[in-house]
Amino acid sequence: MILKYFEDIEIGKKDTSGEYPVTSEEIIEFARKWDPQPFHIDEEKARLTPFGGLVASASHTTAISFWLLNRAGKGLAVISGLGWDKMRLPNPVRPGDRLSLTMECIEKRESKSDPGRGILRHSVVIRNQEGVPVSTFETTTLVKRRPASRSSGRAKPTRPSPEE
Amino acid sequence: MILKYFEDIEIGKKDTSGEYPVTSEEIIEFARKWDPQPFHIDEEKARLTPFGGLVASASHTTAISFWLLNRAGKGLAVISGLGWDKMRLPNPVRPGDRLSLTMECIEKRESKSDPGRGILRHSVVIRNQEGVPVSTFETTTLVKRRPASRSSGRAKPTRPSPEE
Questions:
Q1: Angle between the N-to-C axes of helices A58-72 and B24-34, in degrees from 0 to 180, rounded to the nearest 10
Q2: Which residues of B touch A (CB under 8 A)?
Q3: What's this model's pTM, rounded to 2 decimal places?
C-alpha cells in the first residue's frame, strides 16, 4: 500500500528499520550459491583468513540491505531503483549479528522527463547490534509524485531510465 | 586455488564470465525473500507498471553479479571486497535473459598498511544476451601480493580495512 509519495519525503528525514538476524547457516547457504569464497562458506578455512572466522558475502549484506530498506521505506511509492553509490564495508558481518538500517534523505528533485515522477537520494547506514557500521552507501530512487499534483493529459508511462 | 596475485593483473586487462540464465521462478523466489516489490514478485501487477512485466530486483542482479565475478575473476587471490561505486541499472533484467560480465582493471596500487597486499579497481559491465547493458559499477578489491615479493618479518595479518 502506498502511503508516501515524493512530496511526503523531506530532506533530512530519517527512517529506521527493525533488525535482521544473521545466522552462520544463512551466510553459508547464500554464499554457496552466489559467492563461494572460503571465508564465506567454510568455518575452518575462514578461521585462517584475516577475518578470523566466517563473514557474510557483500552480496548477502546487499540482499539484507534491501530487506531492511523495504521496512525502513515502507509504503514509499517506488517506481524503480536507479543506482547506488559509495558502497563501503567498514566492518565485517558475522554470524549472530543483528543488523538494522537508517536512511536519510539527502537530495530530492522532480523528474525532467515526467511530471508524475521524482527522484530521491538517501544516505544509508547499516549497523550491527553494537552500533558498529557494517555497510554504508547512497541510493537513488525513482518514486511517484502525489497524483493530485500531476499535470493532466500525461503520456503513457515510459520505462524508468537512468537519465531521469 | 590461487592462480592470480596483485602482480598478475595489469591495468587494461579484461576478463569475461560465462552466462547466467535468469528465470521468472528465481526472480520471484529471490524477491519474495529480500525485496518483495510488486514488479518483482507478481506478474499481473508487474504488467501494469512502467516495466510492463516482471523484472529482477537489483539485489538479485547484484547476487548474479557476484556469481559472474567469481567466474570472470577465477583464481584471483581475494582477501576482501572493499567497496562498490557508481552502480547503475541502465536496463531491466527480465525472465529469459542470459547475463554475462566483463571486468576491466582500471587502477592498481600497493596497500599502504601491509606490503603483502594490493588494491585493484575494476570497471564492470553486465550485459544480456542481446549485448544490452543491465548493470554497470566499479569494484575495489583487496588482494594478496605474490608471496615472493613480500618483505620478511611481516606482522600478523590485520583485518581488512577500507583505509587500506
A1: 60
A2: 30, 33-37, 49-52, 57-59, 62-67, 69-70, 78-90, 92, 137, 157-162
A3: 0.89
